[in-house]
């Protein structure tokens, strides 16, 4: 067997990763170009075909993401997110620490069911409003919202794109995530919240200059379309209930999400062009193109080679192997997008499974590493990038230096808590 | 009729090295909405609008929210003012590219340009590129309306 296919496909994939990492080229453009190259060279060297490329695309992941995106796109203009934030502001009675914890909890719960990015995009501007009106620095709140949504998203199947990918590839159900991931994430999340409360203690101890103005905000007024909001929330609630039983009913999460989106669309009858404009098409394209690229790697035998190398490492006790995976994936996810990392590692883990290794726990290690690692740097997750970009347009921008002192510790602590619990839980399983 | 028939000729302008604080004083003293920035030869190189100055004072959240109607009390930001550091910067750091019309420009073309660029005032330049006056939506609008027939006949 010649080595050419493996070398060519590896060059295409890692070249694309480097372009994404250095931001020389937009990640979706890079992925499309990489996918096209992979198929073209695959045909020339006979290791990949158009049919194989189509097969490599995980329609379940794309469908689930699209369905949830449509629901959020419809919920967005109703003002529901503003409503929640204003409600939190009023219940905090102008006490910064209380506001900090309330907003943190709201962001986390939202990001467990919705895309982290959307959650932060919608919560951050209202947070800025509340902080400016109170006359306190918005920095602790913005940074924490990004970090807590990174952390909270790991808890559920639909909370984070890597989870969607892992769930789909490993056949894990919504409830599997609630049983194995959620408890560990809860501890890590609590650790992150306490740590952030401590790291921002100076900012949070400042007395707000104006509390009266906050109490004058009326949450009901922030809802532009209460009826639409209620309908979408009912559909979303129904979807979450179906997620609990999707495995027992033998329906895929993507069918649940797309059906919910269809029901909401028929019920609300929004301007479809307006909704489609709010969908993150670039994300879906990025995923699709990555699937095609990684499919090429697989067909060229690169994954087999990596699995072969890792097999030798399997003299290490499986639990330590998992802990190692958490930290390696976390370190990678801190500097590169966690989606390509996850998509690339899925076939490797599957390959390890074929060699007889018990890979059940490894899927969770991958989820924890990919999810928590994103907190480490500004570019580690899209939520981080969003709060940073937003803050750059304000008078108090978030800097890389600040992130090293606030985000990096959160990544280390959440990974450490997850590692300890991972050992405790999977030692006996 | 062209735009020179409805422009103000005694137009105030500043050089690029003027500070924002000085520019703001001119806005107050002359009660104007737009201040052209010119080079040594009197050619416009940019403009400072009332909106550009007020952005320095406006709370950050206003630009990020689709709707601020529900905020009845701006609270702590009501009394914030731009920092001394910002006020001591030159107008060059704040100015926008000047959208101007030439002296022969007709009234409807001038109005259409203002509409398209969402301007309320627009500098008029002479054929050699020098600032010669400033016109406003009201100036142009009134000039156009005055040509409408007064009666049915």
How would you summarize this macromolecular structure in one to three sentences?
The complex is a heterodimer of chains A (429) and B (153). Chain A is an all-alpha fold. Chain A has 23 helices and no strands.
What is the element layout, followed by pairings?
The complex is a heterodimer of chains A (429) and B (153).
Chain A: H1 4-22, H2 27-45, H3 50-56, H4 59-75, H5 80-91, H6 96-113, H7 116-134, H8 139-153, H9 161-170, H10 174-199, H11 201-204, H12 212-215, H13 219-222, H14 226-245, H15 253-268, H16 272-278, H17 281-299, H18 302-312, H19 318-335, H20 338-354, H21 360-373, H22 382-392, H23 400-427
Chain B: E1 14-15, H1 20-30, E2 34-38, E3 44-49, H2 50-55, H3 61-64, H4 84-87, E4 101-102, H5 107-117, E5 121-125, E6 131-136, H6 137-145
Parallel strand pairs in B: 1-2, 4-5
Antiparallel strand pairs in B: 2-3, 5-6
Helix pairs in contact in B: 5-6
Structure commentary:
The complex is a heterodimer of chains A (429) and B (153). Chain A is mostly helical and 429 residues long. Chain A has helices at 4-22, 27-45, 50-56, 59-75, 80-91, 96-113, 116-134, 139-153, 161-170, 174-199, 201-204, 212-215, 219-222, 226-245, 253-268, 272-278, 281-299, 302-312, 318-335, 338-354, 360-373, 382-392, 400-427. Chain A has a domain at 1-56 and 280-300. Chain A has 23 helices and no strands. Chain A is globular and about 75 Å long. Chain B is 29% helix and 17% strand. The longest helix of chain B is centred in the first third of the chain and has 11 residues, at 20-30. In chain B, a hairpin with a 5-residue loop joins strand 5 (121-125) and strand 6. Chain B starts with 13 loop residues before the first strand and ends in an 8-residue tail after the last helix. Chain B has a single domain, classed as CBS-domain (Roll), CATH 3.10.580.10. Chain B has a three-stranded mixed β-sheet with strand order 1-2-3. Chain B has a three-stranded mixed β-sheet with strand order 4-5-6. Chain B contains six helices and six strands; from the N terminus they run βαββαααβαββα. Chain A binds chain B through residues 77, 79, 82, 86, 124-126, 128-129, 132-135, 208-210, 212-214, 216-218, 221-222, 224, 390, 393-395, and chain B through 59-61, 63-77.
